[in-house]
Amino acid sequence: MHLEDKKKSLLLFWTVFIVYILIYMTKSCFGAAMAAIVDAGVLTKSQTGLISALFYLVYAPLQIVGGIAVDRYNPERLIKIGIIGAAIANGIVFFTQNYIVMLVAWTFNAVAQFAIWPGVFKIVSSQLAPDHRPRAAFLISFSASSGILVAYLVAAAVKRWQDNFAISAMVLLACVIVLHLVTRHVEPYMVPDKVPRGVHTNEPIKLVNHNMSTATIFSLGCVFLMTVKVMLRAAVENGYKTLSATMLMESYEHITPSIGNLLNALVIVSGIAGLIFARYVLFPRIFKDEIACTFFLIALSTPLCALIHFVGQINEWIVIACLCIISMLLNGTQYLLMNYTMRFSKYGLNGTVAGINNAGGAIGLVIQNYLFAVIAEEFGWAAVADTSLIFIGATALCMLIAIPIWKKFKNLEHDEETVEA
Fold first, then answer.
1. Contact 295/396 with Cβ under 8 angstroms?
2. Which end of the chain is more exposed for a tag (fewer CB within 10 A), N or C?
């Protein structure tokens, strides 16, 4: 089912877009409040780290389950269930300072959110008016960065760390009410998708005829290679975003913590600029192929990662420029990932692929939170740069392998659509 009414489609998109930014804000509020929690003596650094890590360890595999679920059931309903669960988790953390209770509540939060991102992507790629979907895929790429920014602004504004979770719980309850009202409003305007020949009405709607199994589609569609790319990219990009301030402060005596944080903000803003660069400069103007364009961006970032090995030895502005450009290039691949994932809409598997990719990203965050910090502490920042270079090199290799396979997959799509026509 999808919308053809343009006004209703825009209403649904902007509702989902704003709601997901706020959901991401609440998901990030624990990280944003972490410094205040440790400073208040409520938890130790290792305890807060374990809570964050366990969230993503549970969250990652459940994204695959959520992706499969939204391809079979109502995505709006699954999103609303997730929002309610997240509100309960935030409410529990607000009312308690017990470590075990907080650990269980935040793990429950990860379980509750199993279908939120796959559901959001399912709506954007399948339920909006067809003309709105490409622009919606671009705009939804900004949601994560925007949510993190809002989370840190809230954390800076509140007087007590507990208030982060009270605000999050109230925001989530408001989100579920607004989403419910809007989806109830637009549902009567949904029209059935075209059911192709040979597909029974009780099966997931697919927009092309094919005799391929899901495993074959995933193999030809390079889903495994793309998930590895998402995992490694997330580890490197988020590693530099979160560790840049500390790295610069420890490598250059005249860079204070406050200056380091300001420079780190510049790195984050550069990542947002990367989405615009990918959308309006590269794809589809110069590159027509999502994976070839992804390889180009990854390859450009490789020598910059190599330069960071010399942090503390070369001028700090060279390092800062490298960090900003790396952030721009790697975050630009997020827009390409959205376009890649939308290719699976015609097979009724876009939610599943979105969930698999998001699982890869969550594993990358676990790697970034622990591996990079341990390497920095034990071996220094040059070793972190070397590890990032290995990760980026492996990512480029995955994309290089995927390019010819992906071209065959797109040619196969074209052949199927020609037969259907």
1. yes
2. C
DSSP state of 190: E
CA atoms within 13 A on the CB side of 281: 12
Alpha-carbon gap, residue 368 to 237, rounded angstroms = 9
pTM confidence score: 0.84
CB 339, CB 290: distance < 8 Å: yes
Handedness of CA 140, 142, 145, 146 (dihedral sign): negative
Closest CA to 20 of 135, 115, 127, 140: 140
Amino acid at the residue 269:
V
Digit-coded pLDDT (tens) for 234-289: 999 988 877 787 888 889 988 886 787 678 778 888 988 999 999 999 999 999 99
DSSP H or E segment with residue 367: helix 350-367
Q: What is the largest CA-CA distance in the chain?
A: 69
| C-alpha–C-alpha distance, residues 61 and 360, integer Å | 9
Task: Determine the distance from the C-alpha atom of residue 39 to the mean position of all C-alpha atoms in its chain, rounded to a whole number.
Answer: 29
Quote the tokens at residue 20.
């997901």
| Residue located via tokens 């595999």 | 61
Tell me how far apart the alpha carbons of residues 240 and 107 are, in angstroms, rounded to a whole number. Answer: 26
What is the Cα gyration radius of the chain? 22
